[in-house]
Amino acid sequence: MPHLLVVHHTTSPATQELLEAALAGTRAEGLDAVQVQVRPALAATLVDLLAADGLVLGTPANIGYMSGALKTFFDLVYYPALTAKAGAPYGLYVHGNSDTGGAVRAVEAIAKGMGWQRVAEPVTVIGMPDRAALDRVWNLAATVAATLLG
Fold it and tell me: What is the CATH number of the domain that holds 99?
């Protein structure tokens, strides 16, 4: 059974809404065969990553960068898993109050360095998410999960 790891840093009502939309997307019709594991970024481990076939990453943009919690996850897993997950599909959603560009660039640089394959455009949301933003996050997570099924 394919294993999808959702690593998130959820610190606000907006990021909670985005996480819930992502999790709903992983339960879309036809995705029952994908096992989903959800881990807050500060609790996600190397073991979690090594067990995963794909990832959905969620973070707020803090001072123009990904959250320190998601950065900590990357710091813990980067070298031990540097080549272990090459080709793994991933998707990213980022929430910000003004700018999300730095956070997206930073996560994508690390993911590229790890050899992961982006399978959907990053979803960025400024301010409170509206229905369209939640739908984009839902689609992002469903796309990553569906990729695991071939």
Answer: 3.40.50.360
Q: Within 10 Å of residue 22's Cβ, how many Cβ atoms?
A: 28
Q: Is 51 left (phi over 0), alpha (psi -120 to 50) or beta?
A: alpha
At 15-24, the pLDDT tens digits run 999 999 999 9
Going by their DSSP bridges, the two strands 123-126 and 89-96 should be labelled as parallel
- pTM, 2 dp: 0.97
Structural domain boundaries, residue 64: 3-148
**Considering its fold, how many domains does the chain have in total?**
1
CA 81 → CA 22, 56, 61, distances in Å? Answer: 24, 17, 25
Strand partners, 93: 58, 123
User: Among all chains, which residue has been given the structure tokens 């956070």?
Assistant: 103
- Three-state DSSP class for residue 65: strand
Q: How does pLDDT run across 68-82, given as a tens digit for each residue?
A: 999 999 999 999 999
Helix, strand or coil, per DSSP, at residue 94 = strand
